């Protein structure tokens, strides 16, 4: 089990997360959710060893994470970051093969190549194996990086567990591939891998996660099964958005539906453009006085004529 206990991260005068605890258990998918800037990615970076906490502890299968050699960590724990800076003209299969690096002694074996090909098939990118990586779309590139992470932990270790850490894995994907990626993560968890996924979509978290950690401004607000964490009160307190939480019509999980009509501040844009003119005028008053108001109001008139 990968255990984060009372984690606090400070950088300068800023506290990114404070006294947050979480555990990533083999056979379980844990989702971390919260608004932008809540500390989700920071927590994942601490779990991966990329960031050292200011206080608190991280244990990897009953050992301090920092005590494990980097290569041993890499054989048993893979990370899919939000963004990749890979710009070289490797082909897709070669990028996935990079995930086998912790397992390679000398040159890649035929098994390493076979694992890379199989990982590409899992994310439905097998037909792209020979494509130059920079020619891919953002969503396609994200799926290739997921295949790289899968190739990294493809083999079950003899002396411990496997962990997969995903930072917003669905951010650049279309609807079908969002579910394909999380179905893959769910299948890995069902097969015994410990999975941690940072997600923005509460319904995806509700559908695929066993447990949810809800963060707000660096603090843990709630932790538990989705049906316990995703209450209208908790969601409104953290996101400031009224919602209805319903029983999903086909799945055994909650369904979160924004209740926009319940928000007294939600503007309504009518066809005559009055709301746009009024909003633009108010913005001009605040920022630039009457001159700015006139400029923005004129721009609004041009757009709505």
Characterization of the model:
The chain is α/β, with parallel strands linked by helices. It folds into two domains: 2-262, Rossmann fold (3-Layer(aba) Sandwich); 267-305, no CATH class. It is built from ten helices and twelve strands. The protein has helices spanning 40-48, 70-76, 92-97, 110-122, 138-152, 175-190, 202-208, 226-229, 232-239, 274-304; strands at residues 2-11, 14-24, 29-33, 55-60, 63-64, 77-80, 163-167, 194-198, 211-216, 219-224, 243-247, 254-258.
Give the topology.
Layout: E1 2-11, E2 14-24, E3 29-33, H1 40-48, E4 55-60, E5 63-64, H2 70-76, E6 77-80, H3 92-97, H4 110-122, H5 138-152, E7 163-167, H6 175-190, E8 194-198, H7 202-208, E9 211-216, E10 219-224, H8 226-229, H9 232-239, E11 243-247, E12 254-258, H10 274-304
Parallel strand pairs: 3-8, 3-9, 6-7, 7-8
Antiparallel strand pairs: 1-2, 1-4, 4-5, 9-10, 11-12
What brief labels describe this structure?
305 residues, Rossmann fold, 2 domains, 6-stranded mixed β-sheet, globular
């Amino acid at each position: 089990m990968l255990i984060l206990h009372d984690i606090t991260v400070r950088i300068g005068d800023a506290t990114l997360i404070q006294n947050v605890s979480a555990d990533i258990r083999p056979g379980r998918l844990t989702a971390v959710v919260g608004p932008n800037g809540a500390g989700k990615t920071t927590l994942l970076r601490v779990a991966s060893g990329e960031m050292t906490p200011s206080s608190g502890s991280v244990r990897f299968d009953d050992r301090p994470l920092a005590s494990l050699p980097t290569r041993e960590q890499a054989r048993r724990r893979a990370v899919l970051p939000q963004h990749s800076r890979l710009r070289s003209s490797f082909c897709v299969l070669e990028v996935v093969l990079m995930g086998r690096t912790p397992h390679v002694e000398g040159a890649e074996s035929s098994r390493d190549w076979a694992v890379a090909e199989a990982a590409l098939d899992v994310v439905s990118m097998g037909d792209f194996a020979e494509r130059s990586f920079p020619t891919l779309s953002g969503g396609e590139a994200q799926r290739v990086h997921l295949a790289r992470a899968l190739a990294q932990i493809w083999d079950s270790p003899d002396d411990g567990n496997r962990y997969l850490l995903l930072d917003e894995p669905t951010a650049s994907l279309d609807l079908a591939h969002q579910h394909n990626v999380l179905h893959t993560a769910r299948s890995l968890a069902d097969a015994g891998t410990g999975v941690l996924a940072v997600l923005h979509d509460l319904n995806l978290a509700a559908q695929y996660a066993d447990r949810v950690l809800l963060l707000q401004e660096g603090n843990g607000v709630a932790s538990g099964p989705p049906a316990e964490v995703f209450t209208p009160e908790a969601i409104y307190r953290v996101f400031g958005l009224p919602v209805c939480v319903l029983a999903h019509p086909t799945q055994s999980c909650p369904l979160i539906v924004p209740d926009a009509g319940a928000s007294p501040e939600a503007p309504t844009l009518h066809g005559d453009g009055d709301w746009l003119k009024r909003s633009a005028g108010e913005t001009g008053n605040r920022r630039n006085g009457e001159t700015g108001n006139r400029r923005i109001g004129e721009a609004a008139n041009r757009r709505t004529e």
